[in-house]
């Protein structure tokens, strides 16, 4: 077993990068960068610039390039998190509406074990839900329901404290007829919707931890749908995830007039450094992602 690497000063970190072939024009600025961007995070953007020995970088690789890719990722993360916020809120709303519509006399239907396929998974969800309820007991709307309704939250209130992971677990465990109703609202099938929610849960967690997007293989491919997937090539890159985001986004006009122009503007701003294949983007990406 190898020994763990030891702490390096900022000066030593810069020297290490230079020894591996990274061109650094301003060492002081490089130290300043490494004082607020972790070496380990920044060096992740260098993986695609390594020579065959997997240690040294390709000739001409500069810190300026790597910093640009890091900045591009930060800005793309903000755009995608904006889109995922909409998708998550819509999913909560439609899941709640579809179940409470089927059982209008039972606002606590989400806690009814008869809705679920696997009782063990249902019990895990219930435990996590009550844990979240306890952790959020001081939120005004939770406090109100504790004081007025003995802590019972109707589903349309309960969804507000559910995470994307919770939503994924609930949907995956629902019995077929209830899955179909929600899937139909997205013009797809239960298998597809389950895959999309699961993929975007992973993507959201990835982005929430500000992990690398550029030239990153997510190692997963969302299940394709005959209705939505006009473009069928897969790469494992972020484009596959953005494509299914377009299927789940609530408002086509906002997607077309805000989200896509933001992505387009960002790609233009960093066109000197960003290569579309490293994101899985085909040349005609804008046309593919436009909602009609």
Strand proportion, as a percent range, falls in under 5%
Biggest sheet record: none
The end-to-end span amounts to 56 Å
What is the approximate shape?
globular
Total count of helical runs of at least 4 residues? 13
**Record field, number of beta strands:** 0
* Structural class by SSE content: mainly alpha
What does this structure look like?
The chain is an all-alpha fold. The chain is built from 13 helices and no strands. The protein has helices spanning 10-19, 27-36, 39-43, 63-102, 119-135, 140-149, 155-158, 164-173, 176-185, 190-208, 238-248, 252-269, 285-289. The mean pLDDT is 96.
Features:
single chain; 292 residues; mainly alpha; 58% helix; 0% strand
Chain-wise SSE layout:
Elements: H1 10-19, H2 27-36, H3 39-43, H4 63-102, H5 119-135, H6 140-149, H7 155-158, H8 164-173, H9 176-185, H10 190-208, H11 238-248, H12 252-269, H13 285-289
Brief write-up:
The protein is mainly α.
């Amino acid at each position: 077993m190898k020994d763990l690497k030891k702490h390096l000063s900022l000066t030593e970190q810069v020297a290490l990068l230079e020894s591996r072939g990274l061109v650094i024009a301003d060492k002081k600025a490089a130290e300043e960068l490494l004082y607020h961007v972790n070496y380990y995070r920044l060096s992740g953007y260098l993986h695609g610039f390594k020579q065959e020995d997997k240690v040294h970088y390709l000739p001409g690789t500069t810190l300026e390039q790597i910093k640009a890719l890091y900045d591009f990722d930060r800005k793309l993360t903000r755009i995608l998190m904006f889109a995922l916020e909409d998708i998550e809120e819509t999913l909560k709303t439609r899941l709640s509406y579809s179940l409470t519509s089927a059982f209008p006399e039972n606002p606590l239907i989400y806690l009814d074990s008869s809705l679920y396929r696997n009782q063990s998974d249902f019990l895990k969800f219930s435990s996590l839900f009550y844990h979240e309820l306890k952790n959020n007991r001081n939120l005004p709307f939770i406090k109100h329901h504790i004081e007025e309704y003995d802590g019972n939250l109707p589903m349309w209130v309960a969804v507000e404290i559910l995470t994307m992971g919770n939503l994924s677990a609930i949907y995956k465990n629902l019995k077929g007829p209830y899955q179909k109703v929600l899937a139909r609202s997205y013009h797809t099938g239960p298998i597809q919707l389950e895959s999309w929610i699961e993929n975007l849960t992973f993507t959201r967690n990835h982005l929430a931890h500000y992990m690398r997007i550029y030239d990153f293989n997510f190692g997963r491919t969302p299940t394709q749908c005959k209705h939505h997937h006009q473009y069928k090539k897969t790469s494992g890159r972020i484009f596959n995830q953005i494509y299914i985001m377009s299927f789940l986004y609530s408002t086509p006009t906002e997607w077309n007039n805000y989200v896509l122009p933001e992505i387009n503007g960002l790609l233009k701003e960093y066109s000197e450094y960003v290569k579309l294949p490293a994101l899985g983007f085909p040349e005609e990406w804008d046309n593919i992602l436009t909602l009609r």
